Amino acid sequence: MDPVVHFEMPYDDGGRMAAFYKSVFGWQMERMGEKMGNYIIATTAPRGPDRWPKKPDWPAQYPAVVIAVKNLRQSMEKVGASGGRVLGEPMDIPGVGAYVSFMDSEGNRVSMLQPLPMPAKAAAKPTARPAKKKKAKKAKKAKKAGKAKKL
Questions:
Q1: What is the CATH number of the domain that holds 86?
Q2: How confident is the model over 103-124, as pLDDT tens digits?
Q3: Residue 138 within any structural domain of the chain
Q4: Strands (E), 9-128
Q5: Integer distance in angstroms from the first to the last C-alpha of the chain?
Q6: Each residue of 35-93: pLDDT tens digit?
Q7: How many domains does the chain have?
Q8: Following DSSP, what letter does each residue of 23-55 receive, concatenated?
Q9: Is 11 inside a domain boundary?
Q10: pTM exceeds 0.70 for this model
Q11: Is residue 132 part of a domain?
């Protein structure tokens, strides 16, 4: 099952929109800047949804659900095969992944995101050997040397 990863709320005035949701719901709002498409991230839980500014020349600017998928191209094919319609070509969102919107079978605008892979965790450093192993190794060495002693 593919999970919903965030939703988008179009806006005319980002400051006004951010103030509204902060005031009404207590969401923490973070402006991402022009480089990131003027998204405003709303944290509603440990990691929250994004907001998308309205664009005068963009169609179908309504609240949208964004679904994380493993393979965006395969999911796009499934949309068409199931009676939906993909809206344009995928776009890369820097540091996030590949994104595309579609109309579902009922005419609702929904989006998909193929997230970039998560960075691998640094390899764990080996810890010191437990004391028992060290004592056993010392005892074995001492026995070999003819100096067996009780540990």
A1: 3.10.180.10
A2: 887 787 888 899 999 777 655 5
A3: no
A4: 28-31, 40-43, 50-51, 64-68, 85-93, 97-103, 109-115
A5: 57
A6: 877 877 776 655 434 445 666 776 666 666 788 889 999 999 989 988 889 999 999 99
A7: 1
A8: HHH--EEEE--GGGTT-EEEESSSS--EE----
A9: yes
A10: no
A11: no
Which residue in this structure is represented by tokens 């995928």? 90
Domain that holds residue 95: 4-115
**Residue 62, Cβ neighbours under 10 Å: how many?**
9
Would 149 be classed as within a structural domain? no
- Quote the CA–CA distance of 19 and 26 in Å, as a whole number: 9
* β-pair type (50-51, 40-43): antiparallel
CA 54 vs CA 22, 38, 58, 60: distances in Å = 19, 10, 8, 10
